Amino acid sequence: MRKVVVMNPKGGSGKTTLATNLAAYYANAGGKVVLMDYDPQGSSARWIAARPADRPSIDLVKAFERSTRTTRSWQLHTSLDATHVIVDTPAGTTRETLEEFTRDADAVVIPVLPSEIDIHAASRCIGDLLLCAKIKPRDGRIGVVANRVKKNTRVYQALLRFLKALEIPFITSLRDAQAYVHAAGLGQGIFELPQYRVKTDVESWQPLLTWLDSEQLTSKSESAAS
Ligand SMILES: Nc1ncnc2c1ncn2[C@@H]1O[C@H](COP(=O)(O)OP(=O)(O)OP(=O)(O)O)[C@@H](O)[C@H]1O
Ligand SMILES: [Mg+2]
User: Fold this and answer.
1) For the chain, which domains are there?
2) pLDDT band at 69 (very low <50, low <70, confident <90, very high)
3) Among 7, 8, 16, 174, which residue has the most ligand 1 atoms within 8 Å of its CB, making it the best to mutate?
4) In the predicted structure, residue 123 carries a pLDDT above the cut 70
5) Does residue 29 have a pLDDT over 70?
């Protein structure tokens, strides 16, 4: 089982977009996918509710509802035979909750928007992760994805400089595209839209999918399991 956590305390950076699209991708690839929604806003839960019945199914765990012991054991049970658990986290995560969200994660994906405020917030989040969650930069488990990118803008160049200066991998850039908004409303991923509409966007996901599938992460989850 591969557990991928999408996080960034900054609201609106693309956590739910990445989490739902990853879930849709793996479900279409034949995986048994669990989407774990830690956000009380329930955006991932709403996305699943809108999902057409003829699309590959994805199990939802409302991880924000953790009031009873039954819920907790049911959550664990649901994830047991999953091939992929994708975790969507809320905005405003604190240092304390970082630990909980990233526990057992094979990979932590941080979407960052090209804006000064978002770059600043991301650098804090990465610093906290490295400090609190005991993830070492050279672990290779944290990856950054630039989201809603408009190339040839000054702030995108600033984001690229910031990402280059980090010790952690910069995985890919996803452009600002209406296809994401459209797919989200349909309870689907961009991979499930007509391919002629999303070819460029689908291509931009390839480095992320390759990274998540890489030997380095695989060997980590195997050694953790043994
Ligand atoms: N690459 C993109 N192109 C166009 N729109 C996007 C893109 N990524 C995200 N969006 C849109 O931006 C909005 C915020 O994205 P999303 O909900 O994924 O962020 P979030 O980090 O989960 O937000 P929150 O912190 O509130 O949970 C949504 O309306 C989403 O459809
Ligand atoms: Mg969200």
Assistant:
1) 2-217 (3.40.50.300)
2) low
3) 16
4) yes
5) yes
Q: Give residue 209's pLDDT.
A: 98
How does strand 59-61 pair with strand 33-37?
parallel
Backbone torsion region of residue 134, taken as left when φ is above 0, otherwise alpha when ψ lies between -120 and 50, otherwise beta: left
Q: What is the mean pLDDT of the chain?
A: 88
Q: Are 12 and 91 in contact (CB under 8 A)?
A: yes
**17 CB less than 6 Å from ligand 1?**
yes
How far, in Å, are 23, 76, 122 from residue 81 at the CA level?
Answer: 15, 10, 33
Please work out whether the CB of residue 149 comes within 6 Å of at least one atom of ligand 1.
Answer: no
191 Cα: distance to centroid of ligand 1 (angstroms): 17
Block residue for tokens 């819920």: 71
Phi, psi of 26 (to 5 degrees): -70, -35
What φ, ψ does residue 127 adopt, rounded to 5°? -60, -45
Q: pLDDT category, 219, cuts 50, 70, 90?
A: low
Pairing of strands 142-149, 59-61: unpaired
Identify which of 209, 152, 196 has the alpha carbon closest to the alpha carbon of residue 175. Answer: 152
Give the contacts of 111 (CB within 8 A, at least 6 positions apart).
6, 8, 13, 14, 15, 17, 18, 144, 145, 146, 147, 174
